[in-house]
Amino acid sequence: MRRLGGGLFAFSYTLLFFLFLFGPLVIMVITAFNSSAFPRVVPWECFTTDWFGVLVRNERLMTGLWTSLAIGLAVVAIAVPFGLAGALALADIGPRLRAGLYAVLITPILIPGVVLGISTIVFWSYVGRKLGAGYDTVFFNGLFLTLLGQVAFIASYAMLILSARLQRFDPTLTEAALDLGATPGQAFRKILLPFLKPALGSAAFITFLASFENYNTTVFTILAGNTFTTALASKIRLGTDPSLSALAVIIIAVTLIGAMVQEAHHRRRALLAGGRPERSWLYANPLTRLLTHPAAILLILLACASAIVWQASHHDAQACRADILSEKQRLQEKLLQEQQQRMQQRQTETPAAPAAPSNNPSPFGGAFNPGSLAPK
């Protein structure tokens, strides 16, 4: 009996946990296909895919998306080399200097993004004024300030990832290469960089995501411009619609496709690393070997997604919308008639007001006659 109660509690807790995690995502997916002008699940009106078109036609969001992509790529190109330099410096210096340098390099992460954004604007505007630069120069450009403000703290993320990888590196490998006649540049390119390749990929991915989703710093440094996050925040603040749910559906779909391809790649590498892959049913014939390749899985998923998008784009919800609109109009007319009937019934039940004196043409009974206020 005790085991049964513990199992029921564990099942209930797990169910609530997953509902807490995935419940909002399920709700957003449902609202993306509801024709209601406000994101809601009930009452359900019509199945539609028009909100995806509304999202694509939103010029401000699309412009902010391209701006965020450009800034993110530029941040990766600058922050990853800076992070690599910081990680190499931490690995080469002594333990006493390492603690001080680590504190300096990690400090930008601890500073609030609002402070970083405001300080970036103040500092570079001061530099521009001292140099006599006008407002059309780079010192007052939102893209330039956003790039500098984000690199100031995102480079620390790359440094942490690369430092963790460098702790597993054996420095005797580069020393042996130098003893065999290799130059420091050759030892760095042919020994250290291949070892850091997985960490460099992870650092580039993390820095890009950190730049793309950043809001606290970007909202100040972008000035009059817009990134995807700032445009999205302003849209939510001024009024939302299901097009944001459509955006969530796109992000979820891209994430699921990437996760499936990554899982297939990981399983394939584990199978090849274990030896004798021909014993697995995946390699029993060339067809299954081809279909289980990560590239083939990616193509299959993209083909399925394209077919779904094509099919959904040909779905017409105008007839259903017209029926819903006529039903709302009919209900509104019914409510209006009921209100008019109640008003007429109330007028018949209410006693008539006393008529005004014949010598007073005012319908208010002489209440506003100046002579009515004189003392009797």
TrEMBL record:
UniProt keyword list: Cell membrane, Membrane, Transmembrane, Transmembrane helix, Transport
Taxonomic superkingdom: Bacteria
Domain ABC transmembrane type-1: 65-262
Disordered, as annotated region: 335-376
Membrane-related topology note: Multi-pass membrane protein
Record-linked Pfam families: BPD_transp_1 (PF00528)
Keyword Nuclease among record annotations: no
BP GO annotations: transmembrane transport
Biased composition (Low complexity): 337-363
Entries under Gene3D superfamilies matching the protein: MetI-like (1.10.3720.10)
Transmembrane segment boundaries: 7-33, 65-90, 102-126, 138-162, 244-261, 290-310
Protein family: Belongs to the binding-protein-dependent transport system permease family. CysTW subfamily.
Name recorded for this polypeptide: ABC transporter permease
Organism: Bosea vaviloviae
